[in-house]
Amino acid sequence: MYAARYTLSCIVRGFATTAKDISHLVKKNKVVVFMKGVPEAPKCGFSNAVTQILRMHGVEYDSHDVLENEELRQGIKDFSNWPTIPQVFINGEFVGGCDILLQMHQNGELAEELEKIGIKSALLETKSE
């Protein structure tokens, strides 16, 4: 499932260097992550943490490996005005990086934000059983 999305993003990513291209990528799915590596093999601890948090919530998301394309790596930083990777977008809006996503996960805000866009957190389903 993730591999198919990753393959598609590789094709698109080669051209995603302008703000318009990146804007299209962040709106392509309800949750989009720009990270180092891929979900199956993150290449930094922060990208791994984001992947684990989203996995715990059972979220399907598009991912883009910024290590594959330096223009995308810089372009996403310019687009979001955020200097670090990973970067998480929910419903086309920039949420933040690893620290912010971790904080949202810990205080329950992530589950709330996911619910607003029609994604039921797997953690909430576990608690209700």
UniProtKB/TrEMBL annotation:
Domain Glutaredoxin: residue ranges: 31-95
Pfam families: Glutaredoxin (PF00462)
CDD domains: GRX_PICOT_like
A molecular function (GO) term: 2 iron, 2 sulfur cluster binding
Any one GO CC term of the record: mitochondrial matrix
InterPro entries (alphabetical): Glutaredoxin (IPR002109), GRX_PICOT-like (IPR033658), Monothiol_GRX-rel (IPR004480), Thioredoxin-like_sf (IPR036249)
Alphabetical keyword list: 2Fe-2S, Iron, Iron-sulfur, Metal-binding, Redox-active center
Any coiled-coil regions, as ranges: none
This protein's name: Glutaredoxin-related protein 5, mitochondrial
